[in-house]
Amino acid sequence: MDNATTGLEVITLGTAAGPAIRSGAPGIATAVVVDGAHYLIDFGLGCTRQAQAAGLHGKDLRAAFVTHLHSDHVGELPAYLLWNWGAPVQGFERDVPIYGPGPDTSAMVSSILAAYDYDIRIRIVDEGRPDLRKIVRPVDIPLPADAAAGGPAHTPAMEPFMVYEDELVTVTAILVEHPPVFPAFAFRFDTRYGSVVISGDTTECSNVARLARGADLLVHEAVNLSFFAERDFSPEFLNHQQISHTTPPGVGRIATAAGVPHVVLSHLAGVATDDEWADGVRAEFAGKVTVAKPGQRFALSAQPAHT
């Protein structure tokens, strides 16, 4: 970890929804950097190169978080692990927890490690790397009691609950509504420099506003429904976009309800101009709106907000 680097920074490594490729932007992936250590949220197409380009080395990764198990959020997890493991690549050599929806996060990570077992065993012997299978630790996030009635057809109103904590950050989660996927999470990162919330994939959902109350930055997904409506997509696909994602005005309503000062749009589904994306949010929100670019950095504070 570079101890000369202090403060809280959010990097929108990739900003595109998927798994279709509709723009030149890499797939969804976000980094939260605190005092030189970093935390990764989702592993969309291109995230491995994007992390490298941002100067994020595996040796400084504290933990990873998966909002849900759609392929555009986890498709490059195998490459990220294999390209960021061991001293030869400035990679991680110690415990790396990967938090995500249970029980399938554990099953997915175990399957990835099994699929690359031959490569892992060779590099342990041939390159002196530690055993990746003993370093990567999947953690299935348990649902609290107030989410017990939840399911693909119902996202209960609930309170945020803690999933991870170290000396730099406290991470809380809440269920969001992304049918038919369940569970799907939004995450909040609280640090001494400020707070950021990452919505994950969700329709307009009051749980996101609850999680984001008092936060300094809300990174929220958005969909341009007209882009899909004007093209020859199936009724099922159009229905998914309508019931599982948030329009820009919907993002504005959530941001207003949460009282956040700044919204960053990422995971952009469909195509629109920056002005079209932002103007939709501004119709319902008076604060700052940014349409994220791949690799864009958002520094929340250079000095601690409190001690």
Automatic annotation (TrEMBL):
UniProt cross-references to InterPro entries, sorted A to Z: AtsA-like_MBL-fold (IPR044094), Metallo-B-lactamas (IPR001279), RibonucZ/Hydroxyglut_hydro (IPR036866)
Metallo-beta-lactamase domain residues: 30-207
Keyword Nuclease among record annotations: yes
Source species, domain of life: Bacteria
Gene3D superfamilies reported in the protein's UniProt record: Ribonuclease Z/Hydroxyacylglutathione hydrolase-like
Keywords annotated in UniProt: Endonuclease, Hydrolase, Nuclease
Protein's name in the database: MBL fold metallo-hydrolase
Organism listed in the record: Sinomonas cellulolyticus
High-level lineage: Bacteria, Bacillati, Actinomycetota, Actinomycetes, Micrococcales
